[in-house]
Q: What sequence folds into this?
C-alpha cells in the first residue's frame, strides 16, 4: 500500500495509458543518457562481431553490415529514468539475421560497445524477432548521441539494455552483469514488472 | 570503472519536508527528514514517488545536493513549466507533509574523495546539484585535493547556490569557481559571457591531468559540447563521467 501524498493529483494523459508501464510517463522528446563522452568511431574502422569464448564466429564491416537485409519496426521504448516514448520507428538488422547459421549452446549474450559500455541479456530476449542492431531512427541515420552509427534495440526491456555504439555480441554460458547491472541496476530489466534496481 | 556499488533492495521510505529553500526564481532545495536512510555517496540520486488519492502515481529522479547528515537529505528541484511532479514539490508541498522516496541510486557518477584524484566539475544550469554534493562533501570532510568548477548559467539570478559557492571559493585556495553567463550579464561582470567551448574548458580546467576525475552534468546539448571539448583537449574519455537531462533538441 503506497502512501498518499495530500493534494497530489497528477496529470493524466488520456488515451495510451495501457501502453505506459508502472512509474513511467510519456515524453514526446527523445532524452539522452550516457555515462561518458559520446564516441565518434569512423565508419571505415567500424565492424560488428559475434564471438564466443574469445573466438570470432562472424564479423561484418560497415558496408557488409549495411548490405544485410534490414527491417523497419515501430516500437514503444521505456527508459529506467522514467520516460517512455511511444511509436518510435527504427531501421536495423534483426539479431536473428546476425546469428543465422551460428551454432551455439549459449544462454546469454553480452553486448559490448565503443566507449567500454556493456550490457547482459538472455539469448532468448534478443532472438525470435525481439531485437535489432539499428542504424536509423525516424528515417534518418542514427545520431551519435543516440548511439550512432548503430545501437542495439531491445524495446521490451528498459532502454539501458539497448546499448548505444554497439560493436558486437559475446555469446555466454553464464549471465554476467554488464555496466549498469554491476552498479545497482536490475539484471533483467522488464519495465512491466518495474525491474529497475537490484531486488526489484 | 567504479567499483560495484553495494546495494540491497531499495525500499520506499517516507520523506518529510523540513524546509523549502528558494535558490533561484525557478529552483528550490527541499530539506527532508527520511527515517531509515542509510547514507549515500556524492553524486547519487533518489527516486520520488507521489500517489494521488485514487491511487494514481508518478515517479521522478532528483539529485542529492548534499552529503547525508544522518537521516537529513537535500534534493534540488527545478520547476518545469509543463511538469507534473516538480510544480507540486516546489509550490504545493508544505513543511511537515510527506511523500515516498527511495535510493541512493547510481554508482558511476559519484566522487569518493581523494582516491579519485583532483576534482574537475563542469555544470550547466541545474546540473550543478550532484556536483554541489561533491563540493560540499569535499569542504565538510576537508578532503585534501584541488577542485575546479566551471558553471554555466543563463543569468546571474539563475546561478544556484551562488552565495555558498562564493563563500567556499573565498576560504579555500585549492578551489577555483568560474562562472559563465550565457544570456545576460550584470554591469561590470568579470566572468565569461558565452556558451561553453573548448577554449573556456582549456583556460579553466587546464591540460589533461591523468590523476583527475572530471564530472559533467547539465542539459544534453551542454554535456555533448563539454564532453567532446574535453576529449578534444586530450582528456581520457574513461575519466570523464557525464550525466545528461532533457531532450536532445532534435
A:
Amino acid at each position: 500500500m503506497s502512501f498518499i501524498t495530500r493534494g497530489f493529483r497528477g496529470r493524466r494523459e488520456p488515451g495510451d495509458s495501457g501502453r505506459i508501464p508502472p512509474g513511467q510517463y510519456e515524453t514526446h522528446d527523445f532524452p539522452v543518457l550516457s555515462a561518458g563522452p559520446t564516441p565518434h568511431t569512423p565508419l571505415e574502422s567500424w565492424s560488428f562481431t559475434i564471438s564466443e569464448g574469445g573466438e570470432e564466429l562472424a564479423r561484418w564491416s560497415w558496408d557488409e553490415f549495411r548490405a544485410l537485409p534490414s527491417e523497419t519496426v515501430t516500437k514503444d521504448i521505456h527508459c529506467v529514468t522514467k520516460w517512455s516514448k511511444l511509436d518510435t520507428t527504427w531501421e536495423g538488422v534483426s539479431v536473428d539475421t546476425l546469428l543465422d547459421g551460428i551454432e551455439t549452446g549459449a544462454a546469454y549474450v553480452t553486448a559490448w560497445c565503443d566507449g567500454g559500455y556493456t550490457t547482459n541479456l538472455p539469448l532468448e530476449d534478443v532472438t525470435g524477432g525481439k531485437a535489432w542492431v539499428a542504424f536509423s531512427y525516424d528515417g534518418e541515420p542514427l545520431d551519435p548521441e543516440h548511439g550512432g552509427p548503430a545501437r542495439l534495440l531491445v524495446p521490451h526491456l528498459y532502454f539501458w539494455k539497448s546499448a548505444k555504439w554497439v560493436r558486437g555480441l559475446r555469446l555466454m554460458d553464464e549471465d554476467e552483469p554488464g555496466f549498469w547491472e554491476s552498479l545497482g541496476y536490475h539484471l533483467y530489466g522488464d519495465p512491466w514488472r518495474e525491474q529497475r534496481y537490484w531486488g526489484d | 570503472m567504479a567499483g560495484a556499488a553495494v546495494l540491497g533492495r531499495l525500499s520506499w521510505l517516507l520523506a518529510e519536508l523540513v524546509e523549502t529553500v528558494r535558490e533561484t526564481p525557478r529552483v528550490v532545495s527541499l530539506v527532508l527528514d527520511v527515517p531509515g536512510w542509510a547514507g549515500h555517496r556524492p553524486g547519487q540520486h533518489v527516486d520520488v514517488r507521489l500517489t494521488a488519492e485514487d491511487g494514481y502515481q508518478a515517479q521522478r529522479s532528483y539529485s542529492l545536493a548534499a552529503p547525508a547528515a544522518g537521516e537529513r537529505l537535500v534534493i534540488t528541484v527545478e520547476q518545469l513549466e509543463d511538469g507534473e511532479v516538480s510544480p507540486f514539490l516546489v509550490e504545493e508541498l508544505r513543511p511537515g507533509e510527506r511523500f515516498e522516496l527511495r535510493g541512493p541510486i547510481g554508482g558511476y557518477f559519484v566522487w569518493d574523495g581523494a582516491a579519485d584524484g583532483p576534482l574537475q566539475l563542469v555544470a550547466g544550469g541545474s546540473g550543478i546539484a550532484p556536483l554541489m554534493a561533491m563540493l560540499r562533501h569535499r569542504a565538510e570532510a576537508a578532503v585534501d585535493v584541488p577542485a575546479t568548477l566551471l558553471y554555466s548559467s543563463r543569468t546571474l539570478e539563475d546561478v544556484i547556490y551562488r552565495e555558498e559557492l562564493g563563500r567556499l571559493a573565498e576560504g579555500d585556495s585549492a578551489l577555483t569557481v568560474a562562472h559563465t553567463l550565457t544570456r545576460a550579464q550584470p554591469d561590470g561582470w568579470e566572468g565569461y559571457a558565452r556558451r561553453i567551448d573548448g577554449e573556456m574548458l582549456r583556460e579553466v580546467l587546464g591540460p589533461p591531468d591523468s590523476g583527475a576525475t572530471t564530472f559533467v552534468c547539465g542539459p544534453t546539448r551542454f554535456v555533448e559540447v563539454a564532453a567532446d571539448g574535453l576529449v578534444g583537449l586530450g582528456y581520457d574519455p574513461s575519466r570523464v563521467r557525464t550525466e545528461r537531462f532533457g531532450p536532445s533538441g532534435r
